[in-house]
Amino acid sequence: MAAMTILREHEELAADQSCFPIWVHSAFCVTAVVVLCLNILHAQDRTLVDPRAAQQQLDRVQNARERLLKQKSDTMARRGVHLIDALLANESAHFCATQSLASPAMSPPGSASSLDFDGIVARFFELDRDRPQHANDYAQSSEVDTLWDLPENFDLWFGSTFGAH
Which helix (H) or strand (E) covers residue 29, if one does? Predict the structure, then answer.
């Protein structure tokens, strides 16, 4: 599955200290996570599900969430974490609903076990409500202390990185 490959590659990029993350890395990671979350939700409605594959996908999603959470100055990553949290909350509710039904595969569309898109969106906006209004809010935060964050003095960083005088 392509989404699993993307998340493996993202994991390797995150581990590579010489690679500076850019927003595209986060965008691909978030997209892959959404695909896996939807796949997990869809799989729960089917009777023939490999529990190991589903758990492996869920593990990849949770690991990706942790990597994205470390990227303090990356808006795509921050909002991706909020989206993952909203999807996983729906996944948990969805799993409980399907387990309470005698035959999840037989449940009609719109039943308690179907995807709650409105709930996911509402939860996402609830989680995202307290976001900083400007990227500089991150630079002034005491949490900015790794290579994954904005440099403290951009001019000094630029000069030392590119040899500008």
Answer: helix 23-44
| Alpha carbon distances (Å) from 149 to 25, 66, 78, 143 | 14, 15, 12, 9
Q: Which of 16-25, 100-109, 123-132 has the weakest average pLDDT?
A: 100-109
The tokens describing 89, both together, are 């909350």
CB 68 within 8 A of CB 77: yes
- The string of DSSP codes covering 39-73 is HHHHHHTSS---HHHHHHHHHHHHHHHHHHHT-TT
pTM above threshold 0.70: no
Report how far Cα 2 is from the mean position of its chain's Cα atoms.
16
Question: What are 114's two structure tokens?
Answer: 């179907």
